[in-house]
Write a structure and sequence with these properties.
eight-stranded mixed β-sheet; Rossmann fold; 13 helices; six-stranded parallel β-sheet; 18% strand; alpha/beta
Length: 365
């Protein structure tokens, strides 16, 4: 099958969960014999068409002009779809569903749309008025979690498939200059934006540090709140035990995970955070907010702990439980390595193929 995947950003420009998942999805589909074309925005010197890991990447310039730029971007995407002539278009978000919908109307090509998180829960700009049309006209609509399925059905009442993102974990790349992190180290990986709730993690870390002076927090990622968070760590007097590592390549993230003792995600809202699944695959116990699709991944007290969003006290309490109990960390680690197998790309891709076949079947009559 020839598949065109639409995603606004793609590695190396995009390193968030959707972008990483799209990369591995394209790679796995290509491995299974499909002809895969990823259509995305250009990234620095990377523009035009290239082939990587057996799939094609089409990078289209995205003008920064607010309205005209996005309209020209969509026009170029539709032109690229016309040139490729795929059997199906796969939109990796409701936002990417607009050119997919237009290509269906103009080119008679079916499309599937896969909700990813904020596009479903917090649509912005153009996308405030278009989600219902995108979901209703899709030949297949997919949600990452049951919670997201309910949210999508509130937008448009129709059948929604639930398929989580998969994982493709490689051996970590070890750097001999890295310090070997022990069980009293806490790791956060993600954007430094208000919705990620990192300020509450810093407040929790103050209490953790007061109880265990040797505990330390590593924060991987960047964003608009970085300067504020660095200032907050100084105000709390924990700057010496908090390390801001900035953005790092995906394989390096896995190295940090293999070295850490506890993973924390204090988000105020989430769809299906792949970073948690990757942490589980590395055997990390997780402390996370009880929001969005996270409770579908973390069972409180079994493979980690759930706390209410913005509750720094509860975060600190659960982190301390894990940091202070090596036997508990080991037990949860073993559980997580087994539990995470259900998220392998092998399972996910087979399900996607079934959905694609259902979507294109009426067009083959």
């Amino acid at each position: 099958m020839k598949i065109a995947i639409l995603v606004q950003y793609f590695p190396p420009k995009g390193q968030a969960g959707t972008e990483i998942a799209t990369y591995f999805m394209a790679e796995q589909l290509a491995r299974r014999g499909h002809t895969v074309h990823v259509i995305t925005s250009s990234s620095g010197d990377l523009t035009g068409e290239m082939v990587e890991k057996g799939f094609h990447i089409h990078r289209i310039p995205l003008n920064k002009t607010r309205i005209l730029g996005i309209l020209l971007f969509w026009y170029a995407i539709i032109g690229t779809i016309r040139k490729i002539g795929p059997d199906i278009v796969h939109a990796q978000s409701l936002a990417s569903g607009i050119p997919a919908l237009l290509s269906k109307k103009l080119l008679k090509i079916p499309y599937a749309v896969w909700g990813q998180g904020s596009d479903v829960y917090f649509p912005k700009g153009f996308f405030i008025v278009t989600p219902e049309k995108i979901i209703r006209n899709a030949d297949a609509a997919i949600a990452l979690t049951e919670d997201m399925k309910r949210a999508m059905q509130e937008i448009c009442h129709r059948d929604i498939f639930v398929v989580p993102n998969g994982i493709s974990i490689v051996d970590p790349v070890h750097d001999t200059n890295d310090e070997r992190v022990q069980g009293n180290s806490i790791l956060y990986v993600g954007r430094l934006e208000p919705v990620k709730g990192v300020r509450y993690l810093l407040m929790a870390m103050k209490r953790v540090h007061d109880t265990i002076p040797g505990a330390r927090l590593i924060i991987i990622g960047d964003g608009t709140e970085r300067a504020m968070l660095e200032a907050l760590s100084s105000q709390l007097g924990i700057q010496d035990c908090v390390r801001f590592g900035g953005e790092v390549p995906h394989e390096k993230v896995l190295t940090f995970m293999h070295q850490a003792g506890v993973f924390v995600l204090p988000s105020l809202s989430e769809g299906f955070p792949m970073v948690i699944v990757e942490a589980l695959s590395c055997g990390l116990p997780v402390v996370a907010s009880r929001v969005g699709g996270i409770p579908e991944i973390i069972t409180d007290g079994t493979n980690g702990y759930l706390v209410e969003a913005k509750d720094a006290g509860a975060l600190a309490e659960r982190i301390l439980v894990l940091v202070q109990d090596e036997h508990l960390r080991k037990k949860i680690s073993d559980t997580n390595k087994e539990f995470v197998k259900k998220y392998s790309w092998e399972h996910v891709i087979v399900r996607l193929e079934e959905i694609y076949e259902l979507s294109v079947a009426p067009y083959r009559l």
